[in-house]
Amino acid sequence: MPVPRYADQPALARLQIRLRSRCLPYDLLDRHAAAEGDLLDYGCGYGLVTAHLANDKRRILGYDIDPDRVAAAERALGSDGVSFTTSLDEVAARTYDQILMLDVLYLIPDELHDALFQQFFTWLRPGGSLLLKETLHTGSLAYRLVVAEELLLRALGRTKGQVVRFHQEGYYRALAEREGFEIETATRRASLTNEWGAWLCRRPG
Ligand SMILES: C[S@@+](CC[C@H](N)C(=O)[O-])C[C@H]1O[C@@H](n2cnc3c(N)ncnc32)[C@H](O)[C@@H]1O
After folding, report:
1. Euclidean distance between CA atoms 71 and 45, whole angstroms
2. Is 64 in the pocket of ligand 1 (CB under 6 A)?
3. What is the whole-number distance in angstroms between the Cα of residue 56 and the centre of ligand 1?
4. Which end of the chain is more exposed for a tag (fewer CB within 10 A), N or C?
5. CATH code of the region 11-202
6. What pLDDT, in 10s, does the model give residues 123-165?
């Protein structure tokens, strides 16, 4: 599905959406997203990941703590197979073939990560997967630029989240394995403006 226009959003939000849509790792999604079934887009924001994946074989629920983003996503993308919510009860009432969490964990305090991954494990059907992507804490100039951008977005009130905290690669792998996931593939990319890792984590069948 092409990126929606989000015509009802203020100019700053539309700019943020346009910039985000340009740097999403579409090839990662094409390679690792479940081809069919029930998907949860955790921390969906405006729903850009969902917009890319939506088709008649996937039923996608987007969840985010930001009610404005969820409402905008629902207006732009809501349909028979695609819906958005701010209700964790609604999320927890279903099970999934895949959970996608792209660039969200850094906004959640470390002490909540294990409990969150335990929840993911129980929400996934046996054999289901978690696709996690995060900026890597490398100390490079690219990393510093990402941190500066995130702090600016927070100062402008453009991102909801309790913290801005990135980790090194081993942190994410260890977190997933501690909660019972098997790492099926790991991806690492570096460019002038970002360095990120992604992990396809499988709940054993
Ligand atoms: C950088 S955006 C990424 C949005 C989307 N995943 C994407 O790739 O375009 C981070 C999103 O995480 C959401 N978020 C922050 N803390 C969250 C939490 N505790 N639970 C769910 N979503 C959260 C924010 O509201 C924001 O929409």
Report:
1. 10
2. yes
3. 25
4. C
5. 3.40.50.150
6. 999 999 999 999 999 989 999 999 999 999 888 888 888 899 9
